[in-house]
Specification:
Elements lengths: L7 H22 L13 E6 L7 H6 L9 E7 L6 H11 L4 E5 L8 H12 L4 E5 L3 E2 L4 H6 L7 E10 L4 H25 L9 E5 H6 L12 H11 L3 E11 L6 H18 L1 H5 L6 H10 L5 H22 L3 H5 L4 H17 L2 E4 L2 E6 L2 E6 L2
Parallel strand pairs: 1-2, 1-4, 2-3, 6-8
Antiparallel strand pairs: 4-7, 5-8, 6-7, 9-10, 10-11
Helix pairs in contact: 1-6, 1-11, 1-12, 6-9, 6-14, 9-14, 11-12
Length: 376
């Protein structure tokens, strides 16, 4: 056996894996939606804010246009001087009957996003709480879709999928592919097969009584992957996580290659913190860089192996983009092999890196715990 032969292991594994991922995604998105509530409960749609990213006002405005009979929108910030407050106040002026703006510097730990959610939750009056990030662009049926599974008392938390859209430039295109061609399909695969639990925090809903049952959010305020901790707490309480076959959209706002690199590391560090063993073995599904390395080292039929590997990755990537109705991803398929090459680089960096950058703040990771290193 050639000494180069082990390089073909991730090539074979990745081809098999991405075909299975596509099958799981197709099955998942064609499931029937959960039955609606007989009497829809009051919902608090909570939007944590920190700074002004591209498209902020447009995205937040979609929260005010939900086809749902009884809900409120709560925008939450920690800093009175945050420029996002002006955006929130403009939307409150538009719909004072619907919108609350909460500004509270109190925080139970270094996770600023979770602190915003905590203070908003205390002032919200809904029976059901929906946590939706500020860059989420919601269609009118979002609230009905995400809250429907909670009509089942055995469901503790419900989540929707989401995909990035409208990238500008090369690095935002790579970011879009990271989410739409890797993270989201892989999350569906893990959910459908039961390989691991997933509870994406950008779009989740739970009953207030469930939050009280699991002991609240405060114990998660110093963790990096608080959504994973929430999902774990729900499962520990004997409840289920429900995924809804509904795809929301999320914006991208990267101003430089440095922003892109740090955000890629952030994604990989999230995966490593939530599942160290699972993260380590993700190198087995990165076939493109290993096929290229095999060919460069003079492996037998190297060019043919690269061609077949690229064809399989692009074909499954195109199928996943079609299933997610991801026109931006379909146009960006040319960059998918480059994204896979970059993904191996960020994997190596995240394997040993313990520094996390978030909204101008710097943290050191100790397992899944965050220790603040510096503030902006």
């Amino acid at each position: 056996m050639s000494w180069r032969a082990p390089l073909l292991l991730p090539v074979l594994c990745s081809g098999f894996y991405w075909v299975l991922v596509t099958v799981c995604l197709a099955w998942f998105l064609r499931r029937r939606a959960a039955p609606a509530w007989a009497k829809p409960p009051r919902v608090s749609l909570i939007k944590p804010l920190c700074g002004v990213e591209r498209g902020l006002e447009e995205n937040l405005a979609t929260a005010l246009a939900q086809d749902y009979p009884d809900y409120e929108v709560v925008f939450s910030l920690q800093d009175e001087a945050d420029p996002a407050r002006a955006v929130a106040e403009r939307l409150r002026a538009r719909r004072p009957d619907l919108v609350k703006v909460v500004v509270d510097p109190a925080c139970a730990g270094p996770n600023g996003r979770l602190c915003n959610i905590l203070t908003a939750t205390k002032r919200a009056d809904g029976e059901v709480l929906v946590y939706s990030d500020s860059d989420m662009h919601l269609d009118p049926g979002y609230l009905r879709a995400i809250t429907a599974p909670l009509s089942d008392a055995q469901v503790g938390v419900a989540c929707t999928l989401y995909r990035a859209w409208r990238p500008r430039g090369f690095f935002e295109t790579l970011e879009l592919l990271s989410l739409n061609a890797e993270f989201v399909p892989s999350m569906v695969f893990a959910t459908v097969t039961g390989a691991s639990a997933a509870c994406p925090g950008a779009s989740q809903a739970l009953r207030r009584e469930t939050l009280e049952r699991i002991g609240g959010l405060e114990p998660m305020a110093d963790t990096l992957v608080e959504d994973f901790e929430l999902g774990t707490a729900v499962l520990r309480a004997g409840l289920r996580i429900a995924f809804v076959p509904h795809v929301a959209r999320t914006g991208i706002d990267l101003r430089s290659w440095r922003d892109w690199w740090r955000h890629q590391l952030y994604w990989d560090q999230n995966t490593r913190a939530a599942s160290p063993a699972g993260f380590f073995f993700t190198w087995l599904v990165r076939g493109v860089p290993f096929a290229v390395l095999y060919a460069l080292l003079g492996g037998f039929w190297g060019a043919g192996i690269v061609t077949v590997t690229l064809a399989a990755r692009l074909a499954t990537g195109a199928a996943n983009a079609w299933l997610l109705e991801d026109a931006d991803g379909m146009r960006a398929l040319w960059a998918l092999p480059l994204r896979d090459l970059a993904g191996l680089a960020t994997w190596f960096a995240a394997l040993s890196g313990r520094t996390v950058h978030w909204k101008g703040r710097v943290f050191t990771l100790v397992g899944n715990r965050m220790v603040e290193a510096s503030k902006p």
